[in-house]
Task: inverse folding
């Protein structure tokens, strides 16, 4: 007993120390460098020819092209939504590139050994392990480290997937993990069955745009009864200038299966804002469980709000059958604009949907993020824990929808929504929508807004902790419930990111 | 060790003068007590010494081993060896007590150019010290001061002091709210730290604590000044007859 407790403390200690060290070595946005590499671009702008070109580059079958074209035609009739609490200049959709890939990827490398060393070096510099024997660095282990934790990675560079690790080993377990472009070619039956079944082509302006021009992304299929033998992750890197990134992820977790999936993203510092409109679809069948964790660290723009990523993302999990479970955990620290509501459709009975979120907005960043819990089946539980932190002149909005349909009897939702303000020029907003259409379900919503407490900061400083580290400590404390929901390696990265994103927010 | 000369301080907005020329000198190795009526400026003195925002020093100086405290940031003062056990310890939700202690200790060590303690060493020392203060492992794991009883908070302050090993310890009413046994534990904790190169300034209202921690010198503070300085018998005098006579003596 005592030893267990000790281990837990030591593990926490390791995590916490990592944070502190990172804070001490804090630079500003540390992924802001770019890779000089020869790129191949599609002509600027968007039209049917561009859609055809993307489809052709990916060597897609005819049905896929038709699907894209249908989306494109639909998109032309739609207007960009402006209901979020976000202000940004008009986006000129014709003044962007929709496809960019490193020249060296023209002939698809058969294995990672054939990938351009410059690309591999990019991921190495980002700390992303593309060598299969590597594990994510920085974890302190006890004496009996036991089995090493491994993570399979799909690395996406601008519009294309550079490579996917541990494919063979995963294949042995029956798990398919590859780029979506490859899945369209190799597993058309699965893609055709599930693509667009969670986020329909016509879902919303950005999702429809994505459906027309998505270039790559990840595909996961976990067969019935299989617990995926390692964590899967996709790492998105935007490098090219003035190029939109539209990736598409499709995860299918078959009956009784389990998978934990991680998503990370960074981009170089650029003066001009860049558009990112991704779609993630997750299908979860009977008794299956998916954990999806994101650490979003796109370039947030500079202090004056110049540049940064405009992040308009549609993420949705469909718990289709009984006893399915989904857990979204997101740490949103980057992007100039964040428009993102990872949602759970609780269609079967006895389901569980959870959403844990940390959203940090500093300087001129604007975040409008939250979730939707759509209860359609009976006896389901959903839980929302949102921690919003605003600093500088940032605006941070939690927007959440909880619906209990007439059939969704005996269901529960609990929402906890806390906002923390640093300084007096930022804003925090909470916009909960609640609809309960039956008598046996219950929805609870709690919200708090507070300021970083001067007494807490002074107390830390009087014990020798410097001001920025003190803020990081207090904010990490504020986020603890959510940090604990993340896989260990991600928790560490997230803690340090919290500190880095808040740099310069005090004093 | 601590040398305070003619220290004047007011609220930052200028609305109130609180310290009106404090003179105080605590030599190395000594324990000094400060007593004085509510509102006389005892806590303010401790805050001004440790660098809390909200006060403006208008005159005078405060030196720790020759270094000018008033020029330093709070964390620099801590690293230089100043420690304040708060009258009202602050709660920090979500930050584990151990994490906090370790962060503080390593920050100070780093500021002084010393190596950080490894996780193993750190845990070993904390456990030992916590035990002598009757702090169980549950309290070590919980968030800083959150849900602690009044007495637990105070004991936790002494644990921090024992871990940080400061040169100059200021204890602001650490005895208030402690039961008899806890008071003895705290006093033992303080006495264990007494050494020729460490000094204490103990702010208290009660003789009780001074029975356990024998002061070398007792000061009486009133209206933001030290109005009388004497030996341990001064505390007994206050205990027996209050501040009335002392206050009228100085007029
Ligand atoms: N931030 C503040 N704002 C307004 N008044 C203050 C502030 N800080 C201190 N004071 C006032 O200054 C005076 C001295 O307060 P201080 O807390 O130093 O007294 P004390 O001697 O510690 O009293 P006690 O024995 O009750 O702890 C009091 O009148 C108090 O109200
Ligand atoms: Mg006081």
Result:
């Amino acid at each position: 007993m005592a030893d267990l407790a000790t281990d837990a403390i030591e593990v926490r200690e390791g995590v916490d120390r990592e944070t502190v060290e990172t804070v001490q070595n804090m630079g500003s946005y540390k992924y802001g460098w770019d890779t000089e590499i020869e790129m191949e671009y599609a002509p600027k702008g968007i039209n049917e020819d561009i859609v055809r070109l993307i489809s052709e580059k990916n060597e897609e079958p005819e049905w896929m092209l038709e699907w894209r074209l249908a989306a494109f035609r639909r998109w032309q009739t739609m207007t960009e939504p402006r209901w979020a609490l976000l202000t940004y200049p008009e986006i000129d959709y014709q003044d962007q590139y929709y496809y960019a890939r490193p020249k060296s990827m023209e002939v698809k490398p058969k294995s990672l050994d054939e990938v351009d060393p410059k690309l591999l070096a990019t991921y190495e510099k980002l700390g992303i392990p593309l060598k299969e024997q590597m594990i994510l660095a920085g974890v302190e282990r006890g004496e009996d480290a036991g089995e090493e934790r491994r993570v399979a990675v799909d690395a996406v560079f601008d519009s294309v997937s550079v490579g996917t690790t541990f494919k063979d080993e995963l294949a042995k377990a029956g798990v398919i993990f590859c780029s979506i472009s490859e899945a369209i070619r190799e597993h058309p039956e699965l893609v055709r069955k599930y693509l667009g079944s969670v986020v329909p082509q016509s879902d919303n302006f950005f999702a429809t745009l994505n459906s027309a021009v998505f270039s790559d992304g990840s595909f996961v299929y976990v067969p019935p009864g299989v617990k995926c033998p390692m964590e899967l992750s996709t790492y998105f890197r935007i490098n090219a200038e003035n190029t939109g990134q539209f990736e598409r992820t499709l995860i299918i977790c078959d009956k009784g299966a389990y998978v934990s999936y991680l998503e990370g993203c960074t981009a170089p510092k650029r003066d001009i804002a860049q558009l990112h409109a991704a779609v993630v679809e997750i299908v979860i069948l009977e008794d299956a469980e998916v954990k999806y964790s994101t650490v979003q660290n796109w370039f947030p723009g500079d202090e004056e709000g110049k540049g940064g990523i405009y992040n308009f993302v549609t993420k949705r999990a469909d718990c289709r059958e009984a006893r399915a479970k989904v857990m979204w955990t997101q740490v949103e620290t980057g992007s100039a604009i964040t428009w993102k509501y990872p949602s759970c459709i609780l269609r079967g009975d006895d389901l569980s949907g959870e959403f844990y979120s940390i959203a940090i907005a500093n300087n001129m960043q604007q975040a409008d993020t939250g979730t939707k819990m759509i209860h359609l089946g009976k006896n389901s539980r959903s839980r929302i824990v949102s921690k919003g932190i605003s600093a500088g002149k940032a605006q941070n909005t939690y927007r959440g929808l909880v619906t209990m349909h007439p059939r969704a009897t005996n269901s529960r939702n609990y929402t906890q929504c806390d906002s923390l303000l640093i300084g007096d020029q930022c804003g925090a907003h909470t916009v909960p929508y609640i609809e309960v259409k039956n008598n046996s379900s219950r929805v609870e919503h709690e919200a708090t807004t507070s300021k970083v407490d001067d007494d807490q900061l002074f107390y830390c400083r009087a014990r020798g902790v410097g001001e920025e580290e003190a803020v990081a400590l207090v904010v990490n404390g504020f986020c603890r419930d959510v940090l604990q929901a993340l896989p260990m390696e991600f928790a560490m990265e997230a803690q340090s990111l919290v500190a880095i994103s808040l740099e310069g927010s005090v004093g | 060790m601590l040398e305070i000369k003619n220290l004047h301080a007011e609220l930052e907005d200028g609305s109130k003068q609180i310290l009106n020329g404090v003179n105080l000198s605590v030599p190395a190795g000594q324990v000094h007590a400060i007593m004085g009526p509510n509102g006389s400026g005892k806590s303010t003195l401790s805050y001004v010494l440790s660098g809390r925002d909200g006060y403006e020093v208008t005159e005078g100086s405060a030196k720790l081993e020759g270094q000018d405290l008033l020029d330093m940031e709070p964390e620099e003062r801590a690293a230089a060896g100043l420690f304040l056990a708060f009258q009202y310890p602050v709660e920090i939700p979500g930050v584990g007590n151990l994490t906090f202690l370790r962060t503080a200790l390593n920050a100070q060590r780093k500021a002084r150019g010393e190596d950080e303690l490894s996780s193993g060493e750190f845990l070993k020392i904390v456990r030992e010290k916590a035990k002598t203060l009757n702090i169980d492992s549950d309290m070590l794991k919980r968030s800083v001061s959150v849900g602690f009883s009044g007495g637990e908070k105070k004991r936790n302050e002494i644990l921090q002091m024992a871990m940080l090993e400061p040169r100059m310890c200021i204890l602001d009413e650490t005895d208030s709210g402690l039961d008899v046994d806890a008071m003895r534990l705290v006093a033992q904790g303080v006495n264990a730290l007494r050494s020729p190169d460490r000094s204490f300034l103990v702010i208290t209202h009660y003789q009780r604590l001074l029975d356990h921690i024998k002061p070398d010198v007792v000061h009486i503070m009133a209206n933001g000044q030290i109005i009388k300085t004497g030996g341990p018998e001064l505390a007994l005098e206050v205990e027996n007859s209050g501040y009335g006579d002392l206050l009228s003596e100085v007029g």
In short: The longest strand of chain A covers residues 309-319. Residues B 42-43, 87, 172-173 surround magnesium ion (ligand 2) (CB under 6 Å).
